[in-house]
User: Fold these one by one.
Assistant:
Number 1:
Amino acid sequence: MNILASEASRRILRLGLLSGGFILFAGVIGMIAAFHEREVVDDFISLGQVLLLAAPFVTSYMAATQMLETGESPRMALAGGLVIGVLCALPTVILLLFNSDDYRYLLDTSLKLIPFVAASYLAWKSHAQGNETRQVAATWLIAALLIGIVSFGFALIFEVKGDLRGVLVNVDRDWVEVVTFDHRRELWTGIGLLLAASAGAGLAGVVMRILPDIPRRALLYGLGITLLVGAFGETVRLILQENLDRDTLREIFRRDTLRQNAAAMLFIISTLAGFLWAMFGGRAQSEFAALDDSRRQQVRNLGMLLFAALLLALPWLIGRTLSDVAVTIGIFVLMGLGLNIAIGLAGLLDLGYVTNYAVGAYILAVLTSIGPLGLFKGTFTFWMVIPIALLAAMFAGFIFAVPVLRMRGDYLAIATLGFGEIIGKLALSDWLKPLIGGAQGVQNIPKPFLFSTELKNPEQLYYIVLVASLVTLFVSIRLNNSRTGRQWMAIREDEDVATAIGIDTARAKLLAFTLSAATGGVAGAIFAAKVGTVFPNSFTVFISINVLSLIIVGGIASNPGIVVGAVVLIGMPELLREFSDFRFLMYGALLILMMINRPQGFIPSKLVMHEVHAGVKPKVSAGD
Amino acid sequence: MALLEVNDIHTYYGNIHALKGISFEVDSGEIIALIGSNGAGKTTTLRTISGLMSPRDGNIVYDGQEISSTRADLLVMRGISMVPEGRGVFAKLTVEENLDMGAYVRTDGDVADDLDSAFEMFPRLQERRKQLAGTLSGGEQQMLAIARALMSGPRLLLLDEPSMGLAPVLVDVVFEAIQRIASEGVTILLVEQNAHMALQIANRGYVLQSGEVAISDTAANLQRNEVVQKTYLGID
């Protein structure tokens, strides 16, 4: 009993049940079954099963870290891992039993027992707090009654519906097959396998934690790479397809799935690489740090050169499908860089950024379309309209900024959110239908031409986005280090002080909104040319939220962060299209995890680091 | 002629009547103290003069010109500089960058000299010129805020509670600095709850009470005034 009451074991119980609840939840909403459709290693493990096993593995790894830090013995940690593994599977096992024909009565019985057990527990608590007998009795009665109504209600629903599926639609054959590792018919074998696998994963998590540093890092690296390549098998195959002959490719992949041999090879190679990096990586870094400044600059320049070459060659390396994804990412990078001027530099939380995107797209559509809505039927080309779209978006940004100049913080966010909605409604309206086509939108937008070549492939459009992003990047870096950038910084820090040192805050804010809008307009125009048609439902509030999220995930005011954020939030969902049902769930989970564990973003800017770690003295310190 | 004349100003926060007709004047080269308890309207008076708020009634004349509806940033260019309450240094900029920001309105390009004289006045700041302002102590931040306000080359310096939250030793340092600034010809309007210190360095003072001027006199007389002694100086 003593052991159960200790802080460590309570934490294990809590973590295990939490993660078990997560697995149950993922199953009940159909996520596990959907993920099972994608195999990670051919005929060996699917993404759904990875999800099933990753939960106990990660949870017990975290628990073991905490336990070893508080001085528990490795044996206790192993026991903890085992318990966590079993607990992870427990909720799922219970649901499996409830779902099977033979044990359905368990559900019925437990639903009827729950009110009594729960009420007794509450009454016991009340007794322990020293309440009078009458109060304890009243607590029991009321609790039993209230919980009883809910519980019997559920019992009745299940009775009427016949089985669990009537209520929990995703508790179906597919789910049962995944969680029992294909032993749907022999339920107890399946349950045994699930418990064993989960407990094994829990143990593995602890073992991984106990291992010495270098092999652990090597193994984690190998495991991570193999799983990543397996999970994104289709993407990797598309890349390799550009560079390998068909036979070799068939050795590695069966359709889009990594073969077992290839997976084993990959695991060994990446573990070895991880091992080498763990052994010598630190030394390489310290040697790099020991170089004198000019040499270090040379190494950096070389790195930049390689990166630039990679960027230039990207479409050839990754092929058409992925180039298309790259263009979409690029459009969002462009918008991210633009919105960052308002949010990251001037601290103006703009939730209506889609406005500028829509203005750019519709301007290009109406001016260049050769369809019935085109105003000039091909007189204007893409290149002539890009500056017009840019100016129009800037004008829109200016117009929308004027009424909200006096607003700050949350109020500004809500007002701009409203503007974003207005634009969506305007695009759909009958009033503007003769001009921009209402719900049908504008069609027949020609692709851009470079001299006489039509840039119709994503591989070619990629370069337009690349150039636009680089120009924006350059401009925003220069702006940030200019007098204007300092104005914005002062406003972001403290608007009153900014005014007190003589900054015209109204003008500076207008400038921020206007410049920020400009790239949104260009992004919209490129989007319109890429897709060829412009519909109102491409311009919802989700665009604004996407752009904002990618800035936050990547790191506010950090340009490399924006690129990483766009790849993670825009690129990954494109590559995981078949799971788009769960897109916003994963999105939300990612944002919450980021805010808890890494609020400064993946690649934080230096300034934001200071803010997040306020109170930690930075290294620069003269005097003292 | 007075450098600053405040004539019967009324300022509101929404419907709350914060300043109920305040009048006073500040002559060139003077140190004037506005004292009074919490909520008397001291800070509101400064914010109204500096242009962060505008009076609904009454007028403010600075250097012979009406300024009651002039924007705050334009007033900085005309020589009114304010050190806001709570200091408001840019925590993520270094000391030196903060000072550069203070010279934001300057177009003459001779900022380097002023930087040197700021460091001369506050040697602590020179020691910490590359340090982030957010990591300075409260007293150092106050010095930085004052030095930053001086960087715009003001004729009139508005100081809002410079002693707030400072250790007694640092209060002395700050007030000495204020006297030195005044001796260099900058006119000073000082808002303080620490009436004792304020009246020691001021030429004249005004006592504010619920949005009105209750007493006005020379600083020496105010220090002897029975009401002031009882209410603000803690002398029985």
Number 2:
Amino acid sequence: MDHLLQLLLNGLAVGAVYALFALGYTLVFSVLGVINFAHGALFTLGAYFTYLLIGGAVGANGLIAGLQLPFALPFWLALLLAGVGAAAVALVVERIAFRPLRARGSDPLLALITSLGAGVILVNLIQLLVGAESYSIPVGTLGSLPVALSIAGAKVRTVQLLLLAIAGVLLLALTIWIDGSRSGKALQAVSEDPVTAQLLGINSGRMIQIAFGISGFLAGMAGGLVGLSVSIAGPYFGIGYGLKGLGVLVLGGLGSVPGAVLGGLIIGLAEACVPADFSGYKDAVAFGFLFLVLLIRPQGLLGRPLAEKV
Amino acid sequence: MEAGLLVQMLLGALLGLSVYLPLRCGQLSLATPGFFAIGGTVAALLSTRVPALAGSGSTYPIASVLLEMVLAALLTGVLALVLGRMVLRLRGIYLAIATIALVEILRVVTLNLEFTGGAVGIFGIPQPFQSAEGYGAFTLVLLALVCWMCDRLEKTRPGRAMAAIRDDELAAASQGINTADTKLLAFVLSALVAGITGVVAAHFLNSWNAKLGNFDASITTLAFVVLGGSRTWLGPVFGGLLLTALPELLRPVGDLRLIVFGAVILVGPLIFPQGLITLERLQALWRRRPPWLALPSNRGRR
Amino acid sequence: MTLLTVRDLGVRFGGLQALRGVDLAVQEGEIFGLLGPNGAGKTTLFNVISGLTPANTGSVHWQERAIAGLSSHRIARLGIARTFQNLRLFHSLSCLENVLVGMHQHARQPPLAALLQRPSFQRREDQLQQQALELLALFGLEAAAQQRAASLSYGDRRRLEMARALASQPQLLLLDEPAAGMNPAEKEELRALIKRLTQQFQLTVLIIEHHVPLMLGLCDRLAVLNFGQRIALGTPEQVRRDPAVIEAYLGGNP
């Protein structure tokens, strides 16, 4: 049944992007216990970076109208650099919106507001510079790769396979890093108990920066990938993904890396299964899931139970 | 200042109070825009589809607006009662995310339903007032009523119970406080305020669509309280007035205004972690009052 | 009359058996002490009685009524108040407000009267404040009435927590290590205060404390817990001589 395979691949490709997105949330949440509401803006930024680096020209409405880089990088390199660029911005966001609050021991709730402020600034800065129109990454970007492949009788877009493969590699690399490396273990220690980790000689400030850096990198890459497979629908297009990412995050379990991956795939597949007649409701699927999970199993599928010490 | 902006500011203050009520109880609920949207939709539907409400005069009768408010309050109240029972078992960021989900589900549903006008929304909502000044006076009275309710709440038993839950829910339960019911009370009151505010906003804006209750609105209204302060009702009122006015006041800087707005909500909590209005600042202000400001007879306080 | 009966109580946290087959009966008007090393399950027993921790086996009866499984606010309303080992005051509220919150169940007023600030409402509110101030005075905290709880010294916080617990006019008061962090003079003061309170308010007290001399001098009866099991029960004299207690806890140094 070709239709089913197509559906499956579609769902997995979208789910992989959600997973990348949610992983960024989860990394920051696991070390700080708060959600970075500027994450959606980093995703958007990654998409625009990718577009510019492959040699795309800016439209006529922004401050830098008509700008075009004098070189055009291959897509994979542009994507990688976009990730790095988003990571750098994530570090700036950490520096101005999170660190001052932490230094003063303020209510972590405030970080929701400050990070949102950072997000608002970023999104509107993008709009100021390149305008509000949508951009799409041209088909020829992938060089000699065919637009679609035929697998077992099903027609599958190459972009989606590519997206799935890149997301898979990133997820694998991240898992290996967290479980296998010294710094990955240190990150786990900080998320377990920041004070004890500090006493054991782990520099938690450093680990928080690393978490933000990786989180921004993943968001930037995800943005570039979505830009390639769909389009860049204006400076605000990261917000919708940002919200769905929350759904993925909660479904998998806040702070759980495998949970974010599982949650992303489940929601991606579920959205792909929404019949065409109800496609308007597609965007509600993630939130419906989220709501149910919170009521039935608040710690998420793979999260640890919440307990309060008396 | 333009009267239209003043109405928007007053509506902002009301929404700030709606976010403030659960927060005073320690519950971070971002559901306010959802209930606001329901209130607005109720008003938009009733006033455009029910001819009996339109009356015979040239302007839409205020009595009909009041009736819409009652119906909106009923609907949001019942909904908040049911949803609150479910979501208030969650704590901290989990509650916040669950309420974001509620608002988003509601938005998507409104966007797709035939009778709410879909993505276009509902247009031509009749006007009970000819001028913005009329709306200003009406909204001001409403705001005064809600402030008065909040003030009484803070100074009485349920208000003390709410403050106790905010500080330590478990210890509050050990004092015989029914924490579930108290949190629910705050949540329902918050929904009522948001729903009623939606009714006024729908008439004032003349049209209504699903966009008015989105995630941006959730966070903007939260910013009202965080910047204004969440210890007394004056905080969200002040924050709501200020932050609603800000983008308009910043119009001269043109395209930069949203960037400046972002900078304000980024820097505000860093400089004033307790918000602008705190009890300490109010007391200090009161101590330094000019001599002509006589002390009103303080009934019942030693 | 037996006020509180605990029968065959068992609580397990994962692989840890925190309480195992504990039996207790607290008589009206007595000061009943719980002794035992750290981790013996004393606070867990308090948490079960006050409805914060569910029991796996056994029952808790208040007078004739089974109360295991009731939520903690209902148990509090039956007349069981408690303090916490690690102090759980309402930090951002003033001392006066902390005590007023303690009076919650007796402070109910018609909502409309409260909303309209009727004279009857204000009279009752003044009366409640007066009572709260008197309670604070009992613990020497009247001068701090308007101060935030967070700004108090450690000993004053312990006293404020007792005042808050008494504000609910309980029949049974559960005190979890009320003397922790106090110097010997303060401990002696506390002993006298608890004695006086029990008489003045016709209280029954169930108390956890590590300081053995204080407990021997204060309590009418004592139970000793070790590894979640009750290993002794009796008057201070009996407990002091119990060989199991000497071995497990007092270490041969009565």
